[in-house]
Amino acid sequence: MGNGGLRERKKARTRETILREAFRLFRERGYHATTTEQIAEAAEVSPATFFRYFPAKEDLVALDRFPPLVEALAAQPPGAPVTVLRGAFRTAFASLTAEEIAAGHAREVFAATVPELVAANLRKASGFLREVGELLAGRTGHDADDPRLRNAMGAVFGVVTLVWLQWARDPSLDGPTELDEALAHLESGLRM
Question: Which end of the chain has fewer CB atoms surrounding its CB within 10 Å, N or C?
Answer without folding.
Answer: C
